[in-house]
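Minutes, project check-in
Item: structure for the 252-residue chain
Input as provided by the requester:
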Amino acid sequence: MNHESLARGVPHTVPGAIVALSLSGKVTLRPEEGRTILFGRNRPEVDVCVGETDLQVSRTQGTLTRRDGHWWVSNTGRLPIRLPRTRLLFRDEDPVPLPEGYTPLFIRGSRDREHLLEMYVVGWHGGQPAAQHDAKTQHPKQWRLTDDEHLALVVLGQRYLLHEANPQPISRQHAAQILAELEPDTNWSAKRVEHVVADVRARLSARGVYGLVREEVGEPVGNALNDNLLRELVLSTTLVPTDLALLDRLSY
């Protein structure tokens, strides 16, 4: 059975309009200040029904409101709403603006079910991006690292480059031991590893990468900051599996 998806774009419509789609329905609104879309389990009382048979989804799970030239998503339900980049939006938190284009929202319900609500904010192209079959492929945005930063992050993130399931960064103490073996004439310590990695996190956070500062991940932080950093570096191909050749000098 084929299911319509907004990921392919939307029919041509006015810039700034929003389209919301779930398994149970679809609604389109023009970009008029103050317009609101309600979504949740209670079909008679909401504009878009989502999670209709799942009692863990709230009857009114959230709202979309047009304000100050943007569409803002708010959570009014009991469950968090998951946005891209694993961002969680909880009840009564400040609304989050939706960017132009496609945004999927996920609500996790009972028995690990996830309910999808697709959003599409129409940009100035009018909705349907033009096909560009012969256009030159754009390379991902790679981040510039110094040699020391690159080596330290390959060591710290080697499990990500080895394609392990659910990888985590190795400890900075372990990373310092490996770096000291690779570069015995360099003063590598756990504190230096921590400073190097913190500098990279701060630099990428200032460039707009989300989840690299404590305020964005909440408590307890654990490995979340370095995990988010390493995932960004791998997804951007700043770190790639062939970088593991840097570790070939290790003695096992």
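Outcome recorded: The chain has two domains: 7-121, 147-247.
No further action items on this chain.
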